[in-house]
Amino acid sequence: xRVERWIEAALDGEYGEGxxxxxxxxxxxxxxxxxxxxxxxxxxHISGVSYRTIGEPGLRFLEDLASSGVKARVKATMNPxxxxxxxWAEMGVPENFAQKQFKIVKALESMGIExxxxxxxxxxxxxxxxxxxxxxxxxxxxxxxxxxxxxxxxRESGPSALASALTGLTPRFGMHVNECRRPTHLVEVExxxxxxxxxxxxxxxxxxxxxxxxPSIPSVRGASGDELKALSAGLGTSGGVSMFTYKTQRGLPxxxxxxxxxxxxxxKLSTGSGGVVxxxxxxxxxxxxxxxLELLKGRRVRxxxxxxxxxxxxxxxxxxxxxxxxxxLGVRVFKDTCMVVAPLEDMGVKSxxxxxxxxxxxxxxxxGGRVQVSLMSREECIKxxxxxxA
Length: 390
Ligand code: F3S
Hints:
The chain is an alpha/beta fold. It has helices at 5-11, 17-32, 51-67, 88-91, 95-110, 139-147, 158-167, 195-210, 225-238, 259-269, 286-296, 311-319, 322-328, 357-366, 378-387, and strands spanning 38-40, 43-46, 75-78, 134-137, 155-156, 169-171, 185-190, 215-216, 254-258, 276-284, 305-309, 332-335, 351-354, 372-375. The chain has a 5-stranded parallel sheet with strand order 12-11-10-13-14, with helices on both faces. Strand 13, helix 14 and strand 14 (372-375) form a beta-alpha-beta unit. FE3-S4 cluster binds next to strand 10 and helix 14.
C-alpha cells in the first residue's frame, strides 16, 4: 500500500505517540484489506463513547491518546454516551458511572471531537455531500449516509474512525470503490410496509440474508427519511451490510419478503411485556418528536415514556416548545444517550417497550436477558404509555 511521506514519518514516531498509533492502525487495516492507498476524508464519526460499552480499558486508551496532545484534522463527531450529560441523575444513572462518562467525553473533546453525542450526526450538523469520502463508525449512520445521502464510508470501528480523525485519512477499499457498491441481491417486498417498526424488521431480515452484500430494495424508494433511518439500523444489526441501493441489475439472486415474515421477526425479538416505553433508536428526528406529541393528543402518560434524541434536535424541539409540551404530559425527553448504551440495569429498569428491532436485539445481548424487551409499533407504544402504569 502506498503511503505519504508524512505518514511514514508518523509511523516512525516523528510526530508523537498519538499519531504513531493512529497511522499504524490505518496502515495495518489497509494492508489487511488490500487497500491501494490512504485517501483524505471529509469527516469522521466516532463510536465507542459510552462507558457501558468501552469500560475501563477504553477510558484508559482514550486518556492516554489524548495526553499525547494529538488533535483531529477533520470534522469529527461523537456517537451517544451512556447518559444524558446534564440529566443523568434524573435518569437514575449511578454517580460512579457518570464520573467515568464525563472523563471519556472530556478525553475525546480534548482531541477536537465534537460532543454531538448522537447516532444521527447527519441530522446534527455533520451531513456529508454526495460522493464525499468519510470514515464513520455506527452502522446505522454508515448505511444511511452511503445509501440515502450518497457518501462513501466503510463500517469503521470506534478506534479506526478516531485514527482517521487524527490523520484525516482512511484506507481506500470497500465502500470507497464504486465497483464494491453494486447490488448483490434483489429484495422484493410483498405487502405494504410502513412505520419505524416494520422498516427496522425489514432491515433486520434483509441484513441476515445478505451478510456483507449490497441489497437492492427498489420498493423502499419514496419511503420517508425516518423510515429509511429505521431500515438502516435494522440492516446494520443482523449482518455486515454497509449500504443498500434502489438500483438493480439483471441476474441478481432474489429475496422475497412477506410482511408475515417481518411479524415473525418482531415476535421472536420480543421477550417481555410492558415496562419503560423507550423511543429513539436511532435518535428521533424533529418530525418524530412532533409526531409523538401529536399521538398523545394532550393525554398524560400513566406509565413511563422516555424519548431519546440528539442535543441538536433537542435544542430545536425546545425552541419550538415541543419538549416543554411533552414534559407537561409526563414524558421525559433525553439527549446524548439511548436505551442500548445507558446502564439500564443499574438504573433499575427491568423491562422496556420499544419500536426498534436494533434496540431489542442489543438490549437483550448487552444485558444478557436481564432486561426484557417487547416490540410494538410507535402508535402502540404511545397507547401503552398512556394506558399502562409502569
Ligand atoms: Fe443509536 Fe443507540 Fe440505536 S446509538 S442506533 S439509539 S442503539
